[in-house]
Amino acid sequence: MGLTDLPQTDSTDKTFDRLVDIPDIDPSAYGSGLCRRRIRLINVSDTLVIGEVEDDFHHFRIELTHDGETILSAQGQPIRGPWSTCMDVGEPIRAIEGNAMSVRSTAIGGYTEATSNCTHLFDLTGLAVAHAMRDDRERQYDFAITDPVDGRYELVLWRDGELTLHWVVEGAEIVSPGAWTAAPLARRFIPWAEETFDLDTAEAAIALRRMLHISIGRGTHLDDVDSAAEHTDGPIGRCYSYTPEILVSAIRRKKSVRDFQNPDHARLLLADMDTRQPPHR
Question: Where do the structural domains in the chain lie, given as residue ranges?
Fold first, then answer.
């Protein structure tokens, strides 16, 4: 199976155990594999949108209610995360409640600080807000990024089963395809993407860029530490669990990282999402 071949999506009516059905990650193999992620967004009704994100390290869910103009409630559910404090991230995302809906997935950045939230729940919630403004019932993003070889990565994104973006990155620059070589990956990428491309393309690109930050975790054996305070080269101050006041109480959730790179395992990403559907569906 090549990098640009989309893994299948399974569906099961039973919640499955990632610790049993998905293998543990092997950080010593970093440099020869890839990281995967899947995001699914569903407009359950005219006033309810749900979303989930799952990758090697994370699994979060958002249930967002709205009246078409205003965000009424944002209920974040942490399912799997690397630190004990990741289980508390449902509260800070509620700061967006009472604010305006938007077709831009990044609009919630004007309502609350991304750094005071779980990065992944924050991004997922922004995508859910934007999806609620669409007529489409569902949207699914699938991502893959290769481990770096001599500073070179390949990043792929599929939207609703269609290959949409395929970047080759060297260092901090996209070197292919040509339409993306001007992208400022290191800083101010979000405004550049939103000013340069249509909403759908910008949304996909912003989501794909996040994979550069996520995938490097494949080469870090965080199960060697017991607390985030011991991870001195971590993203200090850049997410909820790494804020100084939270960091001191963040305990490592060992064996929480799984390896979805094999297509047979990748097909299970969010395979049991339907088991968590709200009863008022």
Answer: 18-149+219-273
